[in-house]
Structure prediction request, 192 residues.
Amino acid sequence: MKNNKRKNQLIKAASKRFSKLGYYKTTLEEVARDIRIGKATIYHYFKSKDELYTAVLESESIELIEKIKAIFNDESIDIMDRFLKYFELKNNILSENRMVALLFIRKFTSELSENESKLLEKLLSDEINVVSLVVSFLNRENIEKFDNRIPKELVYLSWMIAIFKNTINKDETEKSVFSESRIKSFIKSFLP
Prediction:
């Protein structure tokens, strides 16, 4: 139990460092110092900085998928509001799951390592699977007409909106392009 607690502390501390300084400027000494341990202790849990970085990305990916599942499993709100919460979650992605958001942004701006590409593919696959369950359930009446591309399109649309709103577009007047009413219109076009 104590080992898992320490490992989680390391992952959280490393996440903060990687988010703030990036992979190359983050040192294991700083991560260790942040939680008041010696650098050598890190090697009891992770073989390398790469392995710690991968653990951070995996942890944030799992956390994001769990948040998405919680949104879509919340039967106290109607389905449109669940989708709006899903898009809102993505809108806050840089502050809530910064490493995953930066990974997705880097996919379009620079090369990802093979390991990063695999992690991103898994995250997207898991997210598409969650959205697919919801959309196919909504289309259960016309399941034979169900277009299995819709969940993938919704997931990619949510990422595009999140990236646009968080990185490219800082002008408040242009943010109205992705207002709640616009997002509702997009969602309605995908759902029965």
